[in-house]
Write a sequence for this structure.
């Protein structure tokens, strides 16, 4: 092992991860482990395409698009400032509760030495992923509600973010403006297949301060169509376990073609 390896391993073994990520034979302990299921999610080939990954988090999906689907380049956008502040829009009434919780998510102070040795000024794991795996991807701070400063990309992707937004329609419209060919949206906590509401365009307000709606598949499809996507298809319905709780949540992935 060289010096870099020791620091990478330290962050993989002791850091806070949203996705389980594999480095050599070490797997980080993510909230979600997509490593075995990602190949079954029916993402299309992205050969030579540029991708705008909005809400990119640690870059797990960006890495997959580059390494496995042969995308040319990924621009990752995220509202996370990596300073321990809340990286979701939350209602004022929930701000204090979320601030306390999110402060604990930042592993920078415990692992500062390793991050700094790897050339990072904060715990931005997208940049860590880029550096470790030498990937053609760049990070830029930004919000899905205003993508006007970003270039149009062949592909846009937005994973597990819609459910955290108070205004999903503006968000999908912003993705539309930046899409040249197709947009892929993965939504968690979508209604279960057996629900009678599944075939109606319904949103259910969860009553929470930072996780606003549950969606029926029909509602996502309708929103994608109404912002202008010519054809919309569901790529997959799947369940994924929250590693800490041994509980699985439902997801739906859609593709909107321009
Ligand atoms: C639940 S994670 C999903 C990560 C990854 N895209 C996936 O599919 O697993 C949502 C990400 O969106 C980011 N985020 C939250 N609100 C955002 C906004 N308004 N604009 C851009 N990113 C946002 C969060 O910081 C977080 O990294």
């Amino acid at each position: 092992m060289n010096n870099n390896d020791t620091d990478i391993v330290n962050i993989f073994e002791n850091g806070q991860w949203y996705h389980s990520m594999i480095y050599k034979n070490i797997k980080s302990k993510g909230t979600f482990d997509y490593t075995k299921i990602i190949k079954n999610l029916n993402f299309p080939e992205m050969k030579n395409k540029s991708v705008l990954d909005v809400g990119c988090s640690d870059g797990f999906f960006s890495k997959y698009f580059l390494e496995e689907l042969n995308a040319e380049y990924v621009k990752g956008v995220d509202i996370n400032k990596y300073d321990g502040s809340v990286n979701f829009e939350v209602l004022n009434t929930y701000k204090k509760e979320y601030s306390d919780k999110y402060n604990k998510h930042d592993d920078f102070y415990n692992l500062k030495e390793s991050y700094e040795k790897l050339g990072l000024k904060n715990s931005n794991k997208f940049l860590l992923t880029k550096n470790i795996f030498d990937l053609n991807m760049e990070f830029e701070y930004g919000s899905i509600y205003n993508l006007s400063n970003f270039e149009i990309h062949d592909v846009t992707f937005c994973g597990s973010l819609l459910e955290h937004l108070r205004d999903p329609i503006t968000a999908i419209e912003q993705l539309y403006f930046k899409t040249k060919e197709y947009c892929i949206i993965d939504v968690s906590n979508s209604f279960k297949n057996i629900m009678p509401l599944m075939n109606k365009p319904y949103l259910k307000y969860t009553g929470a301060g930072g996780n606003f709606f549950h969606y029926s598949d029909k509602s996502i499809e309708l929103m994608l169509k109404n912002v202008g996507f010519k054809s919309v298809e569901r790529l997959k319905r799947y369940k994924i376990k929250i590693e800490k709780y041994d509980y699985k949540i439902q997801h739906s992935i859609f593709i909107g073609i321009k």
